[in-house]
Write a structure and sequence with these properties.
197 residues, alpha+beta, 2 domains, four-stranded mixed beta sheet, 8 helices, elongated, TIGR02996 domain-containing protein, CHP02996_rpt-companion-dom
Length: 197
Amino acid sequence: MFTLEDKAFIRTILANPSELTAWLVYADWLDEHDNPLHAEFLRLEVRRGQLRNTDPEWYTVEARLRELRTALDPNWVAVFDRPKIENCEAVFQFKCPKRWESLKVINDPAVRHCSACQKNVYYCHTLPEAQDRARLGHCVAVQLDVLRYPGDLMPRRQALDDMLSELYPPNDGMLVGLIYEEPEPEAVPRRPWWKFW
């Protein structure tokens, strides 16, 4: 999958992921070796990092990255994708400050090690894969073009409770969820039809 030259570039990039010059040098090398899609992916990742999501160009870049992710080898994409780390707060009561690209690389391209929580983080290409990992208590980094929804990694009951607690915060002086049922009146026995009084 990776040539010796690829591995040398990747080691340099992962040693200091915020140094974007190495990303661009690798992209140039890929272009020179007839690999324009990989080179374009790297340049777009760099460009997206320079834009805010309020900039119209950000959406164009994001759309093209989504197309390229489907065309490229998922293991190669996992090396350079830049998702946030999720599912740490359930176990460690804090949000991991690290990002996928800054975690320590281990043998598997889809697994990295977080020095903040001393756990492995698993790169997930699909939401069901991320949900399975989250159920096992693993920290995850979900591929950026995966369609997401709030609370999608939590068990359904916990997600519902969290959503309700956001809508109706506890201790706000209101009773929420208490349903008062008025008692039904006692049934009056019917009189026979022949009694008029």
